[in-house]
Amino acid sequence: METTNLKAIPDFDGYLINENGQVFSLKNDAANQFSNGMHELKQLKRKYGGPVVSLTRNGNVYQKKVTRLVANIFNRKKIFENKPNEKWKKTKFSCIEISNFGRIRKQGDYYDDSDMTYCKYKELQTFDNGHGYKAININGKQQYVHRLVATAFIPNLNDLPAVNHKDENKSNNNVDNLEWCTAKYNVNYGTYKKRVSWSKSKPVIGFGKTKVSILKHADNAIRNNIKGISRSSRKMKWRFLKFDFNGLKKLKLTNVEELEKQND
Prior knowledge:
With about 260 residues, the chain is of the alpha+beta class.
């Protein structure tokens, strides 16, 4: 029983706690009066959320989480870790902040039962909306991360309606990669039309002895080769392509065998 470094539990006279989470009572159990000695209180272990201890006050019994008592009484506060040059601004949503890197955090008291600490912020996890954009649900509604970043960090003096990703990577929500624009500018920006064209196609890839070819559509001869009717077409063996236009832009044909495995 560790009785050093004890501190009183606020609002509960006659109770002490140490940094290990042991709780002691100076009261007599039967008469609920202070006694000369003290005894350690038995903690109730729960399946989730850490152990709790029962404390009495004015004849009422209160269950308190031991990990939270230690975190608060011994001020075991963790500092939210920022990335280098990361800055935060408030959003229109209560307690929600957005960073210039597109991270989202919520202000509150968040406890870690594993080490009995707490932090004033918790990072919120985003998800892919199914079209490549990062989003988050706030108050039951889906919010796009790129719009939260642009609204917080980029002045929109002309009240433009759309936010464009300069590098065409929808998941890159760094403020330096975003700009307010018109809907027409956004639609016609960069390789958008090509990407739409490729998304509506059924591309194929052919493997030859010395080169690799990629086509948006297969002719009858190529389709016959894919079906196994012919041994080759254009001196190549063909398969349907299994990645999108963005993948094509980054493709490096350093290892044809590895690429063939990806499209088996």
